[in-house]
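Supplementary Methods, section 5.1.

A reviewer requested that the exact input to the structure prediction be made available. We therefore reproduce it here, unchanged from the version used in the analyses.
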Amino acid sequence: MVDVRRVKLPGVGVLHTFVTDDGGKLGVITHRSGHSDLIAFADAEDHSDNAKVSLRLDEDEAHTLAELLGGTRITESLSSLDQIPGLSIDWFTVDYEDHIAGQPLGDLATRGVVGLTVVAVVRGDSANPAPADDFKVYPGDTLVVAGSPEKVAKAFNFYRTGETKPKSSVDAPPGG
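The structure derived from this sequence is encoded token-by-token as follows.
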């Protein structure tokens, strides 16, 4: 079996790379948005990582390519490693119009969201692990949260609107 290197890219997704028998290097960046980038690098010994080819695939195209290459069993086994029953780990990227923009995180438990943890806030190239309640959040920040899928959805609604109870249906977070 080919040795696949897996690197988490905070705020982006996951990069998988491997070296081919002829010395080439292939990579796939799987974005949280569902898009994937297929990248073929120059000779692995070159160390310049100059991309020969970079191709953006939407989620359906990536699944189709995986089916054609017979890679679904690898993808399924990797994704099963990341699944813990009853726990959702998800990302919320703060936009300018979101309620939380420019505000401290606050204590969600006082708003009725008990059992949810903000694991980190990613700002630019740095992560702020276990941020305090007074940590101010700005547009462009990405909040990494962990909790049940229902509590993650409730927190995301609060981050968007300032309300913990949706006025109408709330979009469930990806993967939740």
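Strands lie at 5-9, 13-19, 25-31, 36-41, 51-57, 88-93, 117-123, 126-129, 142-147. These observations are discussed further in the main text.
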